[in-house]
Amino acid sequence: MSRSRAAIILAAGHGTRMKSSLSKVLHPVGGRPMLDWTIALARGLGCEKIVVVVGAHNPDARARAEALLGPGTTALQDPPLGTAHAVRAAQAALAGFSGDAIVLYADTPLIGAATADHVFTTLAEGYAVSVLGFEAEDPGAYGRLIETPEGDLAAIVEAKEASPEQLTVRLCNSGVLAAPAPLLFELLAEVKNDNAKGEYYLTDVVALARARGHKAKAVPAQEAEVLGVNSRVELAVAEARFQAARRHQAMLEGVTLIAPETVHFSHDTQLAADVVVEPHVVFGPKVVVETGAVIRAFSHLEDCIIRRGALIGPYARIRPGSDIGENAHIGNFVETKKAKIGAGAKANHLTYLGDVTVGAKTNIGAGTVTCNYDGFDKYHTEIGANAFIGSDTMLVAPVSVGEGAMTGSGSVITKDVPAGALAVERSEQRNLDGWATKFRARKAAAKAAKASPPSGD
């Protein structure tokens, strides 16, 4: 039977290079705060206890962590004295826990669950400490993982402390480390700060464990997975790597992306097989698109469901709460919000549909607006099946249009329209015979008079 698991998530960094009033770990990748990514990873690993270590300077990170995990799930590191000191801050929260603990980072959002799980399984194979490493294209300032001839991990050496020979090693430390929790905290108590920075390094745990006769192991990961974010530049790199991976996954799952590099996903975007996505489409959070739907160019979707065979766009905006029915059409410059659009219904041009239910096979003419807001409250519009809403109709909610009813173009509808009725609300047209001809003649004469030079004396 596998051992119980816990996660210690380090989120106490100052993030000064982000130059932001928002805590670094709350900046999003794929529409999701980086802290949320790491908490989701810990949950996906089956961690029964999760502790987020924060600093006194970032109460917003503490609030976010406790909103996701509940009260008492954060620990304070104050002042910040290094990574080992940060992990020790979680000791009280894990008092009595005898399982394995993994140290994760709230600014490293792209680590996959399978990769992190390998860190735990290495402990089950008899190693006392397991460290996630990667082959760096440019090792630079990364700590180096020094291995024994037998392939075990001998030590982690910080770049500033490394010898010239050690600096040639390309296997680098991601910072992710796991060990049995009781042993981890025993080893942390032995860590000293006699180094160039005067900090307590978590990396010293490996050498301390080996000094006790324990074995340690480096677990391989891809460099792209373990990218840490410390600046807006690195945030953009993380976003690009997430997007590239998500696009690739979508195409493998049967989605057609005509210009993949122009399509932007959120962390939870769900596209079924045989969905077609044209260029320059943005998927905000909570979007589900069923099979056979087509999302045309320059459309933006958020918190909505697009049913089988629907056609969206181009230049459509589908806002939160929208449910677009099977084979429905939402065309260019149409915006929906909290709109339930029935199967086969069409709104092809220049329309706003907010707080509305539209029945099956109803046609919404160009320029239609559901007037749903009076400056204080929102109101609902109900449109039945097989209705025809004429162009430039203003539907002043709350109002209903019955099944099979019609509205005349240019009408302002303020009263319910019975099923099968025609509602027309506009002034009677008057034709003034000859008026336009006389008007043009008068204006032309005035223009000519202005252009003629004055006669001399």
Automatic annotation (TrEMBL):
Annotated pathway: Bacterial outer membrane biogenesis; LPS lipid A biosynthesis; Nucleotide-sugar biosynthesis; UDP-N-acetyl-alpha-D-glucosamine biosynthesis; N-acetyl-alpha-D-glucosamine 1-phosphate from alpha-D-glucosamine 6-phosphate (route II): step 2/2; Nucleotide-sugar biosynthesis; UDP-N-acetyl-alpha-D-glucosamine biosynthesis; UDP-N-acetyl-alpha-D-glucosamine from N-acetyl-alpha-D-glucosamine 1-phosphate: step 1/1
Co-factor remark: Binds 1 Mg(2+) ion per subunit.
Keyword Magnesium: yes
Superkingdom: Bacteria
Active site: residue positions: 349
InterPro entries: Bifunctional_GlmU (IPR005882), GlmU-like (IPR050065), GlmU_C_LbH (IPR038009), Hexapep (IPR001451), MobA-like_NTP_Trfase (IPR025877), Nucleotide-diphossugar_trans (IPR029044), Trimer_LpxA-like_sf (IPR011004)
Top EC class for this record: transferase
PANTHER family: BIFUNCTIONAL PROTEIN GLMU, NUCLEOTIDYL TRANSFERASE
Family according to the record: In the C-terminal section; belongs to the transferase hexapeptide repeat family.
Protein known as: Bifunctional protein GlmU
Species per Swiss-Prot/TrEMBL record: Candidatus Phycosocius bacilliformis
